[in-house]
Amino acid sequence: MTGFVRKSLENGIDVYIHPTKKYKTVLLQLFFHCHLNEDEVTQNALLPAVLQRGSANYPTRQELVLHLEELYGAELVTNILKKGERQLICYSLNLVHDQFLPAENRLLEKGLLILCDILTNPVTEEGVFRADYVRQEKEQHEKIIKGLINDKRAYSVERCLQEMCREEPFSVFKYGSLEKLAKIDAASLYRHYRDFLQKTPAEIHIIGDLDPEWVHALLQKVFTFSRGPVDELPLTAVKKKEGEINYVREELDVSQGKLVLGCRTGISYKDDEYLALLMYDGILGGFPHSKLFQNVREKASLAYYAYSRLEKHKGLMVISAGIEVKNYERTMDIIKKQLQDMAKGDFSEEVLENTYRGLRNQYLEEEDSPAAIINRTVDNIMAGRDWSTEELLRRLRAVTRDDIVRVAKNIQLDTVYFLTKREGR
Questions:
Q1: Element (H, E) at 14
Q2: How far apart are the first and last CA of the chain?
Q3: d(Cα 274, Cα 256) in Å, to the nearest integer?
């Protein structure tokens, strides 16, 4: 993992420059960090789609795309992420490096000017966003929100987490809600945009064969818009299970059941025990050699898929399996048996070693992806970590069976969600 140089702009945006000769491209990602506030999350998610419809200099999406293509196929895309109890709005600008274009030496600057223009110089009409742009993007956003239900595997995990964290910000869907979307118009979204640009904590990551001082000066030259004091974001709350296990059953027109178990681990990425939890998760359900895959899917033939994964900043773990509805009880019994065996340390040295190797390979593969490097850096910053890949792997290698068992004994089953077919089907 490349090291980074940290700088800041005069308007308060933090800058992380990752100099490396490994890539022939330059990737810049601008992140806005927002609290998962139910009142604002829908507007936050809709905003980049409206801004990308065009700027005053490129008033239509077509003109914007054509201009990006003139920059040797530069790409500018947005993404909505969820990390702990934060919603992240990410703008990604991907360009070929100037050194591979003999006749070009201002490609990065041109790309940055487009990005800044979109952010700070939107197309307006009577002092607010164009009403037709907002209306059209609301229609698309409505499809995104409704579309979750078409992916039953993702839908069931999302629903389990919503039920599990019902009274917590983490339950808020990263794209927001149809109810809030319906209330947005061009004027209200523009007011939110002005406030958003002023107050939302932001950071820029840029990776490529770049001189940090030169990049910092260029960013300072381009991103000159003023910002006010930024919002203070609350920390993500990592809670333990309270009360009885919550069982939720939902009926839809499905042919296959989706079983999701939500567990509270009490451990998040900032904690020293996290790497033991990561090994635990790998042994339980992260790989083809893991307990869930081997015992639920392969030996018992009960599941089309079976895995576990962590929500690292929130301290949660979900176990997900696609099963025949009639196999609910048997599947639950086998999954609970795997959780019990993990708490007893009932796993072989071979599985332990294979899990370490699997995780090691994942981290080493990230070295080949600029986006993955930036993503892990963002995670590290949020958690107050500064681990290089080498340091992370060294610590991972040092995790013992006793460490994993100690973590296992604190994992609490919180919510069992079952998506099943409607009665009579």
A1: strand 14-19
A2: 52
A3: 34
pLDDT exceeds cutoff 90 at 411: yes
Whether the per-residue pLDDT at 100 is higher than 90: the answer is no
Domain extent, residue 321, equals 246-421
Token pair 């050699």: residue: 289
Question: CA of 17: how far to CAs of 72, 79, 95, 108, 422, in Å?
Answer: 23, 21, 16, 14, 53
268-306 pLDDT per residue, tens: 999 999 999 999 999 999 999 999 999 999 999 998 999
What gap in Å lies between CA 91 and CA 418, rounded to an integer? 36
Higher-pLDDT residue of 80, 99:
80
Kindly compute the dihedral angle of the four CA atoms of residues 97, 103, 105, 110, in this order, to the nearest 10 degrees. Answer: -80
183-195 burial string, b = 16+ CB within 10 Å, else e?
ebebeebbebbee
Helices 186-199 and 131-147 pack at an angle, to 10 degrees, of: 80
Both 33 and 178 in one domain: the answer is yes
**pLDDT class of 414 with cuts at 50, 70, 90:** very high
pLDDT at 424 over 90: no
Model pLDDT for residues 365-392, shown as the tens digit of each residue = 999 999 999 999 999 999 999 888 999 9
Is 157 a member of any domain? Answer: yes
Strands (E), 36-110: 75-83, 86-96
Read off the pLDDT of each residue in 185-195 and give the average, rounded to a whole number.
Answer: 98
pLDDT at 101: 78
H helix runs in 71-130, sequence order: 107-120
Same domain, 85 and 206: yes
| Contact by Cβ (8 Å): 245, 415 | yes
Q: Is residue 239 part of a domain?
A: no
Same domain, 140 and 186: yes
Helix, coil or strand: residue 27: strand
Is it the case that residue 202 has pLDDT exceeding 80? yes
Same domain, 112 and 160: yes
Q: Are residues 288 and 213 in the same domain?
A: no
Total number of domains in the chain: 2
Taking the CA atoms of 42, 43, 47 and 48 in sequence, report the sign of the dihedral they define: negative
How would you class 120 by CB atoms within 10 Å of its CB: exposed for 0-12, middle for 13-18, buried for 19 or more? middle
CATH code, domain carrying 196: 3.30.830.10
